[in-house]
């Protein structure tokens, strides 16, 4: 069984078919990437998957469960985490506080047990701290743990976004243009982190990405879109050399 399936999903914006009957499945343990020229519908698919938008047609299935109408705030509890293209962290909190907040938002405890700080709450608090420290170690963020986000370089903030998503223990990680705003060296580092997340943590990744060097470095399979429709699917090199894809990118 595929980890995630999109079956004939579609959505219109005032007459524009932003996504027009797209079907694909993401297999456990792979990095699946959606590419396409500007306006192809990549971000819209991403927002449909993270349940920001409701599809007008089609179905979304995660681990065999229909999630087409599951609201966005319930998605993390199912095991789907996302990052944002334009980084959405609490800038005036430390890196550690941001990650702890992500854990707390993910696993809510009872108001009274928290107030009374019962043994169960204490145990859960230790569990949160251990999980967060593990992610900080994994992504090599120790030196920044007590820094305020606002003082961190952009590249470190992007990795912190990854860290925040990992703190919720996802089965599927959705990455929205992980290379956006990064220089060449930082993009190479991002490729290593994505590979480690897949190979060492066994987390399945679905990403939308423009940078073809990153796409080629990390993707097992690529889906190319244009005008909201699938153009080609295959390995990164198969898709990049596909005549329809070349035509869409070159506009000829
Ligand atoms: P880019 O690479 O430029 O980010 P994209 O492939 O992510 O492009 P989308 O942002 O998904 O493309 O847009 C697909 C189409 O839907 C475009 O024509 C866009 O103008 C339109 N669109 C997307 N979101 C909306 C919206 N909220 N309201 C109206 N039109 C929208």
Topology diagram in text:
Blueprint: E1 4-13, E2 16-26, E3 31-35, H1 42-49, E4 57-62, E5 65-66, H2 75-78, E6 80-82, H3 95-106, H4 111-116, H5 119-138, H6 154-166, E7 172-176, H7 184-199, E8 204-208, H8 212-218, E9 221-226, E10 229-234, H9 236-240, H10 243-250
Parallel strand pairs: 3-8, 3-9, 6-7, 7-8
Antiparallel strand pairs: 1-2, 1-4, 4-5, 9-10
Helix pairs in contact: 3-5, 3-6
In words, what does this structure look like?
The structure is a single chain. The model has no long low-confidence stretch (mean pLDDT 91). The strands form two sheets. A six-stranded mixed sheet has the order 6-7-8-3-9-10, sandwiched between helices. It has 252 residues and is α/β, with parallel strands linked by helices. It has helices spanning 42-49, 75-78, 95-106, 111-116, 119-138, 154-166, 184-199, 212-218, 236-240, 243-250, and strands at residues 4-13, 16-26, 31-35, 57-62, 65-66, 80-82, 172-176, 204-208, 221-226, 229-234. The protein is globular, with a radius of gyration of 19 Å. Helix 3 (95-106) packs across helix 5 (119-138). It has ten helices and ten strands. Helices cover 39% and strands 23% of the residues. It binds adenosine-5'-triphosphate. Adenosine-5'-triphosphate (ATP) binds at residues 13, 16, 18, 36, 38-44.
């Amino acid at each position: 069984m595929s980890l995630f399936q999109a079956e004939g999903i579609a959505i219109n914006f005032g007459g524009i078919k932003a996504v027009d009957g797209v079907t694909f499945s993401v297999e456990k343990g792979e990095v699946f990437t959606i590419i396409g020229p500007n306006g192809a519908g990549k971000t819209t698919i991403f927002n449909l998957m993270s349940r920001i938008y409701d599809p007008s047609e089609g179905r979304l299935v995660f681990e065999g469960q229909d999630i087409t109408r599951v609201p966005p705030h319930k998605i993390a509890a199912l095991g789907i985490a996302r990052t944002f293209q334009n980084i959405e962290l609490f800038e005036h909190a430390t890196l550690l506080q941001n990650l702890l907040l992500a854990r707390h938002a993910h696993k809510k405890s009872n108001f009274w047990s928290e107030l009374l700080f019962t043994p169960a709450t204490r145990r859960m608090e230790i569990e949160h701290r251990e999980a967060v420290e593990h992610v900080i170690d994994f992504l090599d963020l120790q030196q920044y743990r007590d820094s305020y986000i606002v003082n961190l370089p952009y590249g470190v903030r992007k990795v912190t976004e990854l860290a925040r998503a990992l703190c919720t223990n996802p089965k599927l990680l959705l990455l929205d243009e992980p290379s956006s705003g990064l220089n060449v060296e930082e993009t190479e580092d991002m490729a290593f982190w994505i590979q480690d997340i897949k190979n060492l943590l066994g987390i399945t990744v679905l990403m939308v990405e423009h940078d073809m060097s990153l796409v080629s470095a990390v993707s097992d399979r690529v889906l190319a879109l244009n005008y909201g429709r699938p153009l080609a699917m295959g390995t990164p090199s198969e898709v990049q050399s596909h005549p329809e894809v070349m035509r869409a990118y070159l506009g000829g």
